[in-house]
Each structure stands twice: as C-alpha cells, then as structure tokens.
Amino acid sequence: MLTLDPIQTLACGGLFLLVGYGIRSRVPLLARFSIPAPVIGGLLVALFMLACRQWAVIPLRFDVAFEQPLMIAFFTGIGFNASTALLRVGGRQILLFLGLASVLAITQNLLGIGMAEAFGLPPLFGVVTGSATLAGGPATGLAFAPLFAGAGVPGARSVALANAMAGIVCGSVLGSPLAALLIERLGLKPAASIQSEEDEQAPAMPEATAHRFADPACAGLKSLVFMLLAMGIGAWISEGLGLLGLTLPGYIGAMLVGALIRNIDDQLGWFGLSVRSMELIGNTSLSLFLVVALMDLHLWDLAGLAMPLLANLLLQSVLVVAFCCWPLLQLMGRDYDAAVMASGFTGFMLGTTANAMACMSSLTERYGPAPRAFLVAPVVGAFLIDFTNAIVITVFVNAWK
C-alpha cells in the first residue's frame, strides 16, 4: 500500500480537481445541475477506493493533514465577506430573506431529527441530513462531520456527502419549475422600470479602500497575511469557547475574527483589504478542501442508510417548496422578483449558491430581469446564511450531543 504525505495528497487533490473541471466541461448534464468540480474529481477517487475495497485491496492511503487548515481558510474567507455595508445596500429585504432562511434551517433540522428517530437513528443524524448539508452544502457538512461522528452518527462524512449531492440535484431540478409555476399562475410580470434604490447604492461587494492598492501581488499578499492572522487568533477563540463546554467546529473563531477585521476596515480603512483577493483565496481553499476530503471518503459507510436518506430528502424537498410558496413569496412582496427569489431560495436551501444563480438566470432569460432578486439572494446564499446556519447547527449539536 502506498501512503501519500500531506504535500503529495494535496497535489493529487489538485490534479483530480482539474480532472473534475474537465469532465464537467464535457458533460453538459453535470454543468446544468451545477455539480461542483471538486465533488466530481474527489468522488472519482472515492469510487475507485470503494471498488478496490470490494476486491479486498487498499492501494492508497492519504494523509489529509492539510484538510483542516483549508477548511478553516474557506470559512475565514466567508467571515471577511460578512460586511455590514452589504446589509445597508439591500436593507430590509436582505435581513428578511436571511431571517426566512435561518428559520427554514431550524425547521430542516427539526424535520431531520423526527425522521432519524422514526428510523431508529441518533437524533444528530437528522441534523447532518438537515441544514448541515442542505442549507450548508457539502463544505459545511464535511466541516461538521467530525463533531457528528464523535457524537455517534454512523458514517457522518459519507452521509454528509451523499445528502449534499442529492440536495444539489433536487435544488437544481425544483428551483426553476417552482418559480415558473408561481409566475404563470399568479400572472407576475417584471417591473416596468428596473431602476430601484438598491441599484443606485454601492456594489454588493463594496471595496472602499481597494483602489489604494492597485498592485495585485501586494493585494494578494496582504489578503493572505490577514487571513492567516484571523485563523491564528481565531484558533485561540475557538479553544477558549471549547473550554466553556461548547462543541464548535474549528472554523468558528477564525470566521468571527475575519468578520471583525472586515468591518473595521470598511469603517476606518486601516488595512485596505481586497475583497476579490479574499474571495480568490477562500474559493481556492474550498475547492482543495472538498476534493481532498472526498478522496478520503469511506462510501461503504452508507450501507443500510439509503432508505432513511431518501425518505428524509423527499420530505425536506416538500418542506422547502411549501416554504417558498408561503410564507416566503408573501413576505418578500408577492411579485415577480419574489418568485425569482423563491427559485434561488430553493437552490441554495437544498444545494448551493451556484444552483440558486443557475435557477434564477434561467428564469430571467425567459421572463425578464429581476434586479432585486439578484441583489438579495446571492448575498444571503453565498455567505450570510453560513453564519446563521453555523449557529443553528452548533445549538443543535450541543443540545443533542
């Protein structure tokens, strides 16, 4: 058996990440469902390892020492994106949309716990198959998997992957048809004038001080240094919270420090951080984290869990669709933009923000522009829900551990 050290494992992950992008570009169905390239590449390795296990052969062993730092780096990037300036751009609409998403995340967990108990499984199995992987997607599910495994959830990592993947497909399939049905049945039309107060505000990703640092190398280096600083300080904060008896994922402290630094910079302009550089580092870390985590996934842990997973996903999909029809549509204005938002909401509450954007784009190509929807849904789905969802999951983990 060949054992790959951390650098070799990361290099292998990078190779299969590129393979995933190549496969997705050549298989339109994968692109249509917005299946992430890291998931494709990592899953290929996991399936290969599963086949080898059936032949009683273990050809490779991966040292995933870099998995945790990459995961923390991604969620630190989420923290740096959490600017209060974004709330001022969208105002009440963003806060309301975030509140609705957070309420649904709680409901997803309650439904999941009920389904888990019906099948004689640990209650936290329902949280894994609830907001951890549906509202959170594969990254959040895999980030919390060690906590769930320690709390007695069988095959937590494999369950997280399977449920997240199935949710991505469901979000892609349901989002656009649901909104189209609402638009047709209610006779909703795009606003005659697409100018709005939000359009006149600053861009959704304000970068007030970035113009002072035009050198890309300097901006990238500064972003990397501040991200590492947030990760280092955040480790102390997470350790301190752990001493208080709270069960938390390793990234919580770093994510909070990142948000604090970002908002100080927005207000005072001390650091001149580049949002684009932070996003690039965070997204790269996410891709590598996912592919490395999936390469080391034990798919054989899913044996015997197919029925609970399928039954739960069916009811979760019904829940999201019903929530979009009411109360989300009503509270967001019961207009065309609200219907498009419902499409995006379905996409990221069952899958990822990529699903949400794909669903909304297909609708606007057919029916016309929805500027308010494209302001609100991406801001909430891309990172604000990750903040509140992390709190929701942490509360459930500590209540049922």
UniProtKB/TrEMBL annotation:
Any single GO CC term annotated in Swiss-Prot or TrEMBL for this entry: plasma membrane
Membrane topology: Multi-pass membrane protein
Protein's UniProt keywords contain RNA-binding: no
Transmembrane segments: 6-23, 35-56, 68-87, 94-116, 160-183, 243-261, 281-300, 306-329, 341-363, 375-400
GO biological process, one term: L-glutamate transmembrane transport
Pfam families: Glt_symporter
Main location: membrane
Keyword list, A-Z: Amino-acid transport, Cell inner membrane, Cell membrane, Ion transport, Membrane, Sodium, Sodium transport, Symport, Transmembrane, Transmembrane helix, Transport
GO MF annotations in UniProt: glutamate:sodium symporter activity
Subcellular location(s) of the protein: Cell inner membrane
PANTHER family hit by this protein: SLR0625 PROTEIN, SODIUM_GLUTAMATE SYMPORTER
NCBIfam families named in the record: gltS
Function text: Catalyzes the sodium-dependent transport of glutamate.
Family designation: Belongs to the glutamate:Na(+) symporter (ESS) (TC 2.A.27) family.
Protein name: Sodium/glutamate symporter
Source species of the chain: Frateuria terrea
